[in-house]
Amino acid sequence: MLRRGCNTSMAIEVEIGTGPVSFDDVVAVARHQAAVRLSDSARSAMAASRAVVQGLAADTIPHYGVSTGFGALATRHIPAESRTQLQRSLIRSHAAGSGPEVETEVVRALMLLRLSTLATGHTGVRPVIADTYAALLNAGLTPVVHEYGSLGCSGDLAPLAHCALAIMGEGELRDRYGVRRHTADALPEYGIEPVELVEKEGLALINGTDGMLGMLILAITDLRRLLITADLATSMSVEGLLGTDDVFADDLQRLRPHPGQSISAGNLRRLMADSPIRESHRDPAACTRVQDAYSLRCAPQVNGAARDTVDHAETVALRELASAIDNPVVTDDGRVESNGNFHGAPIAYVLDFLAIVTADVASMSERRTDRFLDKARSNGLPPFLADDPGVDSGHMIAQYTQAAIVSELKRLANPASADSIPSSAMQEDHVSMGWSAARKLRRAIDGLTRVLAIELLTAARGLELRAPLDPSPASRAVISELRKHTQGPGPDRFLAPEIEAAVSVVAEGRAVAAAQGVVGELG
Asked: Which InterPro entries match (predicted)?
């Protein structure tokens, strides 16, 4: 749990072993370099389970992970004098990742979650193993982990092995300044002693779903903000396209009582409140349009269903946070048992669900943007919102960029969890591909951020072109934030930097913060 000293200038510290870590814990450690500390109760639990493993190590009967090989080689009994080499060889051989480096925040989340499982006392490792992981996190030392190497079953094997390699003093890492270094050179500078792994410890360090779970938690955190942003972009688009907010009425939404839909519609009502632009065409005698296009009218149904999917994914993530994933595990009554809890299917499925809704929310956003640019559908705005149409192209190609991203998001929505490639001589004959699902979801979330940023930028320009009529107070606040970094309507200019500035406004939560400064917290 998160703890802060009485001096509010002190850094946040996450205590491990007093219960499941929370979403806030994971984000604090992964993104904000919060310190971690192992609780006394965790040390006691780990010591107790270690005693069980040591008892089995002396047994003449083979025990998986303690005195045997691994995977398809589990039938071989390993003599006591070779078991240190067994653990060392396991980590070295499994640290076989390839491809681009994985982001620091993902590796830190992965390490925290593995540390959390170690602290449950169900893995049989010594407390020194957990202490060394904590020391790496606190020193800001991040093992180099690669994109490819996990099938999402038997744990995120290669990613976790690269982290385990670091506590052995081997491999490479990045220091707190982002410099890539040899681990053996960096650890002494921070007073960290490499550890020699003994029976079962190598296996316990790699048999977890921590990578895919960490990415799921970070994705849920990002999507919560982005779905509020989607409502914000929707409200500005409905306003700017002279749409109606009547369809967002609470009594209409209650006829279909999905909780996310209700939240989204409530956000839209508040964001569009007190809009002179909206009031300018409220009189039915003056406005002959009786229905808006689906991308405007049905936004609560789409953005709301996405929220409900995120809620389901959070339920799965919370169950995983309360789990101890290892194989074999030390049970509460002192047995050491093999199991299948390392299979990533529960996480893989929801990661794929989230990629689907991410693509769909982005698709609807792009359709609203396109309406602004089409003179036949924008209700009086100039073609492409151009200053001098024909001489200027306005936001024509910004929509192309959106369309390219949305097309990519549709490809990323293809489920990874529907695939399986057998491995380990058919011992591991069904895998989840959850790590792959998580990696593509991260790319999808980046794409959604960019699509929403372009919609906000376009809607802001459309609203400003409605002058002298003003948009709602919430829309004005968002436009003001955007205009700190971008220009308003006018002749064509280099547009890419303005898009990137808008992406930062969305990604950093400044668009949502600006709107909430007017209407209060949004759901």
From this structure: Aromatic_Lyase, Fumarase/histidase_N, HutH, L-Aspartase-like, Phe/His_NH3-lyase_AS
Say if CB 486 and CB 502 are below 8 A apart. Answer: yes
The rounded distance, in Å, linking the Cα atoms of 442 and 290 is 40
Residue ranges and CATH numbers for the domains of the chain are 2-208 (1.10.275.10), 215-421+429-519 (1.20.200.10)
Q: Considering 64, 148, 177, 190, which one is annotated as catalytic?
A: 64
- The yes-or-no answer on residue 190 being catalytic is no
What 3-state class would DSSP assign to 458?
helix
Cα–chain center distance at 123: 27
Whether 326 and 117 have beta carbons less than 8 Å apart is answered as: yes
**Phi and psi at residue 450, to the nearest 5°:** -70, -40
Residue 1's pLDDT band (cuts 50, 70, 90): low
What size, in residues, is the chain?
523
Condensed to tens digits (0 to 9), the pLDDT of residues 200-241 reads: 899 899 988 999 999 999 999 999 999 999 999 999 999 999
What is the per-residue pLDDT across 440-461, written as a single tens digit (0 to 9) for each? 999 999 999 999 999 999 999 9
DSSP character string of 354-419: HHHHHHHHHHHHHHHHHHHH-TTTTTSPPGGG-SSBTTB-TTHHHHHHHHHHHHHHHHHTS-STT-
